[in-house]
Specification:
Layout (H helix, E strand, L loop, with lengths): L1 E7 L2 E8 L2 E4 H5 L6 H6 L3 H5 L14 E2 L9 E5 L3 H6 L8 E5 L4 E2 L5 E3 L6 E2 L2 E7 L8 H4 L3 E9 L1 E2 L8 H4 L5 E9 L10 E6 L2 E7 L7 H8 L10 E3 L21 E6 L3 E9 L5 H4 L1
Protein backbone atom coordinates (compact mmCIF):
# COMPACT_ATOMS: atom_id res chain seq x y z
CA UNK A 1 0.00 0.00 0.00
CA UNK A 2 1.19 3.48 -0.87
CA UNK A 3 0.08 6.41 1.31
CA UNK A 4 0.41 10.13 0.59
CA UNK A 5 -0.25 13.36 2.49
CA UNK A 6 -1.73 16.25 0.53
CA UNK A 7 -3.84 19.40 0.43
CA UNK A 8 -7.07 19.52 -1.61
CA UNK A 9 -9.04 22.76 -1.87
CA UNK A 10 -7.26 24.09 1.18
CA UNK A 11 -7.97 21.00 3.31
CA UNK A 12 -5.10 18.84 4.54
CA UNK A 13 -5.67 15.12 4.13
CA UNK A 14 -4.01 11.81 3.32
CA UNK A 15 -4.88 8.81 1.26
CA UNK A 16 -4.11 5.60 -0.61
CA UNK A 17 -2.26 6.10 -3.88
CA UNK A 18 -3.76 4.37 -6.91
CA UNK A 19 -2.64 4.40 -10.54
CA UNK A 20 -5.00 7.28 -11.39
CA UNK A 21 -5.20 9.25 -8.15
CA UNK A 22 -5.84 9.00 -4.43
CA UNK A 23 -8.49 7.42 -2.23
CA UNK A 24 -9.13 10.14 0.34
CA UNK A 25 -8.68 8.57 3.78
CA UNK A 26 -9.16 11.89 5.51
CA UNK A 27 -12.75 11.84 4.30
CA UNK A 28 -13.23 8.30 5.63
CA UNK A 29 -11.04 8.13 8.74
CA UNK A 30 -10.28 11.75 9.54
CA UNK A 31 -12.56 11.92 12.57
CA UNK A 32 -10.42 9.22 14.21
CA UNK A 33 -7.02 9.89 12.63
CA UNK A 34 -6.47 13.42 11.45
CA UNK A 35 -3.32 12.74 9.47
CA UNK A 36 -0.98 9.98 8.42
CA UNK A 37 1.14 10.34 11.54
CA UNK A 38 -1.98 9.84 13.71
CA UNK A 39 -2.92 6.74 11.70
CA UNK A 40 0.54 5.27 12.36
CA UNK A 41 0.45 6.23 16.04
CA UNK A 42 -2.82 4.32 16.44
CA UNK A 43 -1.39 1.27 14.67
CA UNK A 44 -4.34 1.58 12.28
CA UNK A 45 -2.84 0.77 8.88
CA UNK A 46 -5.24 -2.18 8.76
CA UNK A 47 -8.14 0.27 8.83
CA UNK A 48 -6.73 2.09 5.83
CA UNK A 49 -6.23 -1.24 4.07
CA UNK A 50 -10.02 -1.75 4.05
CA UNK A 51 -10.34 0.97 1.40
CA UNK A 52 -7.60 -0.25 -0.94
CA UNK A 53 -10.08 -1.52 -3.56
CA UNK A 54 -11.99 1.78 -3.72
CA UNK A 55 -11.81 4.00 -6.78
CA UNK A 56 -9.68 7.12 -6.55
CA UNK A 57 -11.60 10.15 -5.28
CA UNK A 58 -9.07 12.73 -6.41
CA UNK A 59 -6.79 12.96 -9.42
CA UNK A 60 -3.13 13.80 -8.85
CA UNK A 61 -3.65 17.11 -10.68
CA UNK A 62 -6.18 18.16 -8.03
CA UNK A 63 -3.69 17.72 -5.17
CA UNK A 64 -0.79 19.59 -3.70
CA UNK A 65 1.50 16.97 -2.19
CA UNK A 66 2.78 17.51 1.34
CA UNK A 67 5.87 15.86 2.82
CA UNK A 68 4.84 12.25 3.51
CA UNK A 69 4.95 13.03 7.24
CA UNK A 70 4.63 16.80 7.42
CA UNK A 71 4.82 17.06 11.23
CA UNK A 72 7.41 14.51 12.36
CA UNK A 73 8.62 14.71 15.92
CA UNK A 74 12.14 13.88 14.78
CA UNK A 75 14.01 13.80 11.48
CA UNK A 76 17.34 12.05 11.99
CA UNK A 77 19.72 12.10 9.06
CA UNK A 78 22.66 9.80 8.40
CA UNK A 79 25.70 11.13 6.58
CA UNK A 80 28.54 9.29 4.88
CA UNK A 81 26.66 5.99 4.69
CA UNK A 82 27.69 4.76 1.23
CA UNK A 83 31.21 3.66 0.39
CA UNK A 84 31.56 5.97 -2.63
CA UNK A 85 30.37 8.97 -0.62
CA UNK A 86 32.88 8.22 2.14
CA UNK A 87 35.65 8.13 -0.46
CA UNK A 88 34.54 11.47 -1.91
CA UNK A 89 34.68 13.13 1.51
CA UNK A 90 37.67 11.14 2.82
CA UNK A 91 35.58 9.99 5.79
CA UNK A 92 36.98 7.25 8.07
CA UNK A 93 34.98 7.49 11.31
CA UNK A 94 33.40 4.03 11.87
CA UNK A 95 30.40 5.33 13.88
CA UNK A 96 27.25 6.52 12.08
CA UNK A 97 27.41 10.22 11.22
CA UNK A 98 24.16 11.82 12.41
CA UNK A 99 22.58 15.24 12.15
CA UNK A 100 19.04 16.60 12.37
CA UNK A 101 16.53 18.28 10.11
CA UNK A 102 13.61 20.33 11.34
CA UNK A 103 10.08 19.69 10.06
CA UNK A 104 9.80 23.13 8.43
CA UNK A 105 12.81 22.41 6.21
CA UNK A 106 10.72 19.96 4.16
CA UNK A 107 8.47 20.18 1.14
CA UNK A 108 6.42 17.70 -0.89
CA UNK A 109 6.52 16.11 -4.34
CA UNK A 110 6.07 18.51 -7.27
CA UNK A 111 6.36 21.57 -5.02
CA UNK A 112 9.26 24.02 -5.22
CA UNK A 113 12.53 23.27 -3.46
CA UNK A 114 13.94 26.63 -2.39
CA UNK A 115 17.56 27.47 -3.06
CA UNK A 116 18.80 29.44 -0.03
CA UNK A 117 19.58 33.05 -0.95
CA UNK A 118 22.80 32.95 1.06
CA UNK A 119 24.22 29.83 -0.61
CA UNK A 120 26.16 29.46 -3.84
CA UNK A 121 26.64 25.71 -3.31
CA UNK A 122 23.16 24.17 -3.15
CA UNK A 123 23.76 20.44 -3.64
CA UNK A 124 21.54 17.41 -4.22
CA UNK A 125 21.45 14.13 -2.29
CA UNK A 126 19.01 11.32 -3.11
CA UNK A 127 18.23 9.11 -0.10
CA UNK A 128 16.00 6.36 1.27
CA UNK A 129 13.73 7.62 4.05
CA UNK A 130 12.53 5.26 6.79
CA UNK A 131 9.24 6.09 8.53
CA UNK A 132 8.87 4.72 12.06
CA UNK A 133 5.55 3.01 12.86
CA UNK A 134 5.69 2.31 16.59
CA UNK A 135 7.42 3.64 19.68
CA UNK A 136 10.54 2.11 21.15
CA UNK A 137 13.93 2.64 22.70
CA UNK A 138 16.91 0.34 23.07
CA UNK A 139 15.59 -1.54 20.04
CA UNK A 140 17.70 -4.51 18.98
CA UNK A 141 18.70 -4.75 15.33
CA UNK A 142 16.99 -8.16 15.19
CA UNK A 143 13.65 -6.49 16.00
CA UNK A 144 14.31 -3.14 14.36
CA UNK A 145 12.54 -3.63 11.02
CA UNK A 146 9.30 -4.47 12.85
CA UNK A 147 9.30 -0.83 14.03
CA UNK A 148 9.25 0.47 10.43
CA UNK A 149 5.91 1.57 8.93
CA UNK A 150 7.28 2.23 5.48
CA UNK A 151 9.81 3.82 3.16
CA UNK A 152 9.95 6.84 0.91
CA UNK A 153 12.29 8.95 -1.23
CA UNK A 154 14.11 12.00 0.08
CA UNK A 155 16.08 14.75 -1.66
CA UNK A 156 18.26 16.05 1.16
CA UNK A 157 19.21 19.45 -0.29
CA UNK A 158 22.46 20.75 1.17
CA UNK A 159 23.86 24.28 1.33
CA UNK A 160 27.47 23.07 1.26
CA UNK A 161 28.94 26.50 1.99
CA UNK A 162 26.97 26.52 5.28
CA UNK A 163 28.25 23.14 6.46
CA UNK A 164 31.03 24.66 8.50
CA UNK A 165 31.98 22.59 11.55
CA UNK A 166 28.86 20.46 11.28
CA UNK A 167 25.94 19.79 8.96
CA UNK A 168 22.94 21.37 10.70
CA UNK A 169 23.24 24.89 9.25
CA UNK A 170 23.55 23.50 5.74
CA UNK A 171 20.48 21.28 6.03
CA UNK A 172 17.72 23.34 7.60
CA UNK A 173 16.90 26.18 5.24
CA UNK A 174 13.17 26.35 4.52
CA UNK A 175 11.87 23.92 1.89
CA UNK A 176 15.26 22.44 1.03
CA UNK A 177 14.38 18.79 1.77
CA UNK A 178 11.86 17.11 -0.54
CA UNK A 179 10.03 14.11 0.97
CA UNK A 180 7.78 11.91 -1.15
CA UNK A 181 5.95 11.38 -3.30
CA UNK A 182 4.43 8.85 -0.90
CA UNK A 183 5.21 6.11 1.59
CA UNK A 184 5.33 2.47 0.52
CA UNK A 185 4.37 0.31 3.49
CA UNK A 186 7.01 -2.03 4.88
CA UNK A 187 5.11 -5.20 3.93
CA UNK A 188 5.90 -4.38 0.28
CA UNK A 189 9.64 -3.91 1.00
CA UNK A 190 10.77 -7.10 2.75
CA UNK A 191 14.44 -6.11 2.37
CA UNK A 192 15.26 -2.38 2.26
CA UNK A 193 18.77 -3.25 1.06
CA UNK A 194 17.86 -4.54 -2.39
CA UNK A 195 16.66 -1.28 -3.94
CA UNK A 196 18.15 0.65 -6.86
CA UNK A 197 18.48 4.36 -6.01
CA UNK A 198 19.04 7.06 -8.63
CA UNK A 199 19.11 10.85 -8.77
CA UNK A 200 18.71 13.01 -11.88
CA UNK A 201 19.47 16.71 -12.33
CA UNK A 202 17.82 18.16 -15.44
CA UNK A 203 17.50 14.67 -16.89
CA UNK A 204 21.16 13.75 -16.32
CA UNK A 205 21.72 10.84 -13.96
CA UNK A 206 24.06 12.13 -11.24
CA UNK A 207 23.77 9.37 -8.63
CA UNK A 208 23.25 5.64 -9.14
CA UNK A 209 23.73 2.92 -6.55
CA UNK A 210 21.84 0.28 -4.61
CA UNK A 211 20.79 0.41 -0.97
CA UNK A 212 22.83 -2.78 -0.55
CA UNK A 213 25.82 -0.41 -0.53
CA UNK A 214 24.81 1.19 2.77
CA UNK A 215 27.54 0.81 5.37
CA UNK A 216 25.18 1.08 8.36
CA UNK A 217 22.02 -0.84 7.48
CA UNK A 218 18.52 0.30 8.45
CA UNK A 219 18.23 -2.14 11.38
CA UNK A 220 21.62 -1.09 12.72
CA UNK A 221 20.70 2.59 12.46
CA UNK A 222 17.45 2.04 14.38
CA UNK A 223 19.35 0.14 17.06
CA UNK A 224 22.00 2.86 17.35
CA UNK A 225 19.60 5.84 17.32
CA UNK A 226 17.15 4.24 19.77
CA UNK A 227 19.89 3.89 22.37
CA UNK A 228 19.93 7.67 22.90
CA UNK A 229 16.45 8.82 21.84
CA UNK A 230 13.00 7.23 21.89
CA UNK A 231 11.64 6.67 18.41
CA UNK A 232 7.94 7.36 17.88
CA UNK A 233 5.43 6.85 15.07
CA UNK A 234 6.01 9.34 12.29
CA UNK A 235 9.67 9.88 13.13
CA UNK A 236 11.85 9.77 10.04
CA UNK A 237 15.37 8.43 9.50
CA UNK A 238 17.06 9.55 6.28
CA UNK A 239 19.68 6.92 5.57
CA UNK A 240 22.38 8.69 3.57
CA UNK A 241 23.25 9.47 -0.01
CA UNK A 242 25.31 7.58 -2.58
CA UNK A 243 28.39 9.08 -4.20
CA UNK A 244 28.17 11.53 -7.09
CA UNK A 245 27.20 14.69 -5.19
CA UNK A 246 27.82 17.99 -6.92
CA UNK A 247 30.37 19.33 -4.43
CA UNK A 248 32.89 16.64 -5.31
CA UNK A 249 32.53 16.80 -9.10
CA UNK A 250 35.02 18.52 -11.40
CA UNK A 251 33.81 21.14 -12.01
CA UNK A 252 31.34 21.24 -9.11
CA UNK A 253 27.66 20.84 -10.04
CA UNK A 254 25.12 22.76 -7.98
CA UNK A 255 21.38 23.43 -8.26
CA UNK A 256 19.87 26.72 -9.42
CA UNK A 257 16.41 28.16 -9.99
CA UNK A 258 14.65 26.36 -12.83
CA UNK A 259 16.53 23.09 -12.40
CA UNK A 260 14.58 19.85 -11.95
CA UNK A 261 15.83 17.36 -9.36
CA UNK A 262 14.45 13.82 -9.22
CA UNK A 263 15.03 10.87 -6.90
CA UNK A 264 13.78 7.39 -7.76
CA UNK A 265 13.96 4.33 -5.52
CA UNK A 266 12.95 0.93 -6.83
CA UNK A 267 9.51 -0.27 -5.67
CA UNK A 268 8.94 2.97 -3.76
CA UNK A 269 8.43 5.96 -6.04
CA UNK A 270 9.78 8.80 -8.14
CA UNK A 271 10.15 12.17 -6.40
CA UNK A 272 10.36 15.24 -8.64
CA UNK A 273 10.83 18.92 -7.76
CA UNK A 274 11.83 22.14 -9.48
CA UNK A 275 14.29 24.49 -7.79
CA UNK A 276 13.18 28.07 -7.09
CA UNK A 277 15.04 30.93 -5.48
CA UNK A 278 13.97 31.47 -1.88
CA UNK A 279 12.04 34.74 -1.66
CA UNK A 280 13.54 37.64 0.22
CA UNK A 281 11.98 37.98 3.64
CA UNK A 282 9.83 41.10 3.75
CA UNK A 283 9.80 43.44 6.73
CA UNK A 284 6.08 42.75 7.09
CA UNK A 285 6.77 39.03 7.50
CA UNK A 286 9.28 39.77 10.26
CA UNK A 287 6.73 41.55 12.48
Amino acid sequence: MKLASFVHQGIRSYGIVKADGVVDLGRRLGSSYGDLKSLLAADALHEAQQFIAEKADLSFDALEFLPVIDNPGKILCVGMNYAEKRKEFDQHNPAPTLFIRFADSQTGHQTPVLKPRHSREFDYEGELAVIIGKSGEDISREEALSFVAGYSCYMDGSARDWQHTWFTAGKNWRQTGAFGPWMTTADEIPDPHQLAIRTWLNGRMVQEDNTASMIHKVAELIEYISTFTRLNPGDVIITGSPGGVGKKRTPPLFMHAGDRIEVEIENIGHLSNVIADAPAQSLAAMH
